[in-house]
């Protein structure tokens, strides 16, 4: 299914970015915390560099200033020469170097993690915008520590066996019901709200109209909605993303071949 | 405790405002809905007028554009003549008429409802910014309908007996723990998060520091925190508001004396 590139040598340059969206507070405050306490990102074989990705949006607690930063990592943006007149989020001179794309079924990726050789995006939520919740903050912190521990094991020559896992892949997006003028005519049904990754059966209610009636899911098969009623996606015309569940095999990762010693 | 003015004649001019803060979505969408379906605000003796209070902030899904609208209803703002150079929220020419203040212990009120003869503010939440949740939307809709029904009963000459009720009044505010530079050094403890109006005992944890330790509530008496970890209050230096619970008597409201008939 996925053919992620398997690195063949120890990972030395690791960056952890937070606050790509300035109003998603767990990442904002974890990045700020790590900038002051970087020891938490150190392992024996490498140190991860914390990066606060969008300082101006973070200052004003907004998703972005001029352009959604996490939609700008395409080759056309990355290959253009930035000018002072560009929108704020398109001015990233430090990043205008070689680009490695993580491609999904032929599509170009636009996300921040696509500019790394081995990018990994961690989505935690749903979380309310502009609120730093201790529970999500702690989960994000533990998850990042686990990733760093994995890189450390890999760098030390650990082999990882193949395994199977379940995952979800997008199969479509559903917009809110709208009036002819484009305004909302209803919102996510209470029976769907807060049920990300749970099965949605044909015939189940998905929207509650302001007029009082329910709109039902009319698809033919069970789907697994995610990004349900996500504040940031109102502007993108997305009430939720339909996914399907599938199983895929993660191939074995053999131990690194030790590099020839400089003395040999 | 409170000495609310008791109106002595039927209420005919009733306004229901929503979207005073443009990213609190229940009020935004209820006001928009009522603008298109005003019959829901009609009663036999009056019709309430729906008002979308801050259209520009609503368009960009922000609390406010230039100035927190719900802090501008003071006599100094209301008595000044607006100019085109004023901040957006200070330009309310339609409202620069006589002002009736709802005063709390000598303080001038700054809230929108203070410009009405009998203003009533309904706070629903906590609700995530930029998200229209059906559960809060429905509660707000029912609550407004109940207020309108009450006005209708009052206008029709219903007498209401005195009764006692419990309420909460603010006794102080608590800021987040901060670094010397003013950044957050921790956030609301998971044992306090989502417990608005529940008792907080001396010695209970209130903040979880990024360094890992807990900060405890060191007050001497039980308080009832509200506005816990409210996104809009980060900029105001408020992690939560401490209240005390008390009982007060709502005086009887006698039936309106029928106005002399024009023919008599």
Can you characterise this structure?
Chain A has helices at residues 25-36, 55-59, 75-79, 134-155; strands at residues 13-18, 47-52, 163-174, 186-188, 205-209, 214-216, 224-226, 240-250. In chain A, helix 1 packs across helix 4 (134-155). The first copy, chain A, is built from four helices and eight strands. In chain A, the strands form three sheets. Chain A has a three-stranded antiparallel β-sheet with strand order 3-8-7, with no helix packed on it. A three-stranded antiparallel β-sheet of chain A has the order 4-5-6, with no helix packed on it. Helix content of chain A is 17%, strand content 19%. Chain A is α+β, with helices and mostly antiparallel strands. Chain A starts with 12 loop residues before the first strand and ends in a 14-residue tail after the last strand. The A-B interface holds A 23, 29, 32-33, 36-37, 61-62, 126, 128-135, 137-138, 179, 183-184, 187-190, 193, 208, 210-211, 229-232, 234-235 and B 23, 29, 32-33, 36-37, 61-62, 126, 128-135, 137-138, 179, 183-184, 187-190, 193, 208, 210-211, 229-232, 234-235.
Main features:
three-stranded antiparallel β-sheet; globular; 17% helix; 4 helices; homodimer; alpha+beta; 264 residues
Question: In a nutshell, what does this entry contain?
Answer:
The structure is a homodimer of 264-residue chains. Chain A is of the alpha+beta class and 264 residues long.
């Amino acid at each position: 299914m996925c053919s992620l590139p398997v690195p063949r040598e120890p990972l030395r340059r690791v960056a952890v970015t937070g606050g790509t969206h300035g109003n998603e507070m767990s990442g904002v405050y974890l990045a700020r915390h790590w900038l002051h306490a970087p020891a938490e990102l150190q392992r024996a074989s490498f140190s991860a560099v914390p990066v606060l990705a969008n300082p101006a949006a973070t200052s004003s607690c907004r998703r972005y200033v001029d352009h959604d930063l996490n939609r700008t990592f395409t080759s056309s943006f990355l290959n253009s020469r930035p000018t002072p007149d560009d929108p704020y989020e398109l001015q990233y001179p430090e990043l205008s170097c070689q680009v490695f794309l993580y491609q999904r079924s032929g599509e170009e990726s636009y996300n921040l993690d696509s500019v790394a050789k081995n990018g990994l995006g961690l989505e935690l939520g749903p979380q309310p915008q502009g609120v730093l919740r201790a529970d999500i903050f702690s989960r994000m912190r533990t998850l990042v520590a686990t990733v760093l521990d994995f890189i450390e094991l890999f760098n030390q020559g650990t082999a990882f066996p193949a395994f199977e896992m379940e995952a979800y892949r997008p199969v479509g997006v559903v917009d809110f019901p709208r009036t002819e003028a484009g305004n909302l005519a209803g919102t996510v049904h209470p029976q769907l709200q807060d049920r990300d990754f749970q099965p949605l059966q044909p015939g189940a209610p998905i929207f509650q109209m302001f007029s009082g009636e329910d709109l039902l899911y009319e698809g033919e098969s069970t789907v697994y909605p995610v990004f349900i009623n996500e504040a940031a996606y109102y502007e993108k015309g997305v009430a939720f993303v339909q996914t399907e569940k599938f199983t895929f095999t993660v191939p074995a990762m053999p131990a690194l071949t030790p590099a020839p010693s400089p003395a040999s």
